[in-house]
Amino acid sequence: MIEILNGMHETINYGNSLGLRLYHNVDYEDYPEHWHVGIEIIMPVEDTYRVGVGEQWYDLGTGDIIIINSGVIHALQAPPRGERMILQFDPALLYNLKEMETLLFMMPTVVFLKRQDDTELYRFLKERLDKIICEYDGNSTFREASIYASLIEMYVGLGRFEVYSDEHKDKHQSDSKQQEYIEAVMSACTYINRKYMENLTLEEVASVSGFSKFHFTRVFKQYMNMTFYEYLNSKRVKRAEELLYNKEMSITDVAMNSGFSSLSAFNRTFKALRHCSPSDFRKKRLTGRMGGTGSD
């Protein structure tokens, strides 16, 4: 299944212009820890499958769905017999759509949905995943457009489930007021995504939302589960991760091209969020080996 592997990094060969591939995997083969830029969706259609992320193992039964986000290190274990559908796609497919970059950023490392739970979200995703499989295996007119549309619908459903979940709701707010807040937060995130390389301030982004600094701070925390500065730093660290894959760039160059004002601020923030130095992160991702704390 893994065609191009450099250390722990798998380069996905999509083999088409869509930036997406889907295959019926029947290999009795385990795959060690690896990562790729593409997002991966796995659903067993016969027998079981195991997915390991960090110390956590997910045991998938027939019809269960797991979504592994971009850049997540994971391992796979297959039973002696069985079949599973594996869909991989380039997240850049969705980046140009309004709010999608924020949604992909908000997504947890893993989304695991069990068939037996039969939730509304599971049924929604399963229906669209089945449609993608049918279209991919067929040769109908507008096949690629149909697959793309179903993929967008899947992530719209995930996004609405996330932002409208009970943990974000305030029973004292009307639906229209909550919708106003959601739109303001999404607008602020879109602004941050475009301007994160600049010296952004809380006051500047709050003004974009149309709220006072103090009101914006509370609303942003309510719907994003993080503060404005946590989101901004996470966005910068995410960009730094992408640049660290380029061995030709020095750590200092990575820091300056990720929106950090100094190397010390970059090292401090990166270690706080990723629990390792930028140089150790680079070493592990490129070689699969983690050294000591080292010096940057």
TrEMBL record:
The HTH araC/xylS-type domain, residue ranges: 186-284
Transcription in keyword set: yes
Alphabetical list of InterPro entries matching this protein: AraC-bd, Homeodomain-like_sf, HTH_AraC, RmlC-like_jellyroll, RmlC_Cupin_sf
Gene Ontology MF, one: DNA-binding transcription factor activity
Keyword vocabulary terms for this entry: DNA-binding, Transcription, Transcription regulation
Pfam families from the UniProt entry: AraC_binding (PF02311), HTH_18 (PF12833)
PANTHER family: ARAC-FAMILY TRANSCRIPTIONAL REGULATOR (PTHR43280), TRANSCRIPTIONAL REGULATOR MTLR (PTHR43280:SF27)
Protein name (database record): AraC family transcriptional regulator
Source species taxonomy: Bacteria, Bacillati, Bacillota, Clostridia, Lachnospirales
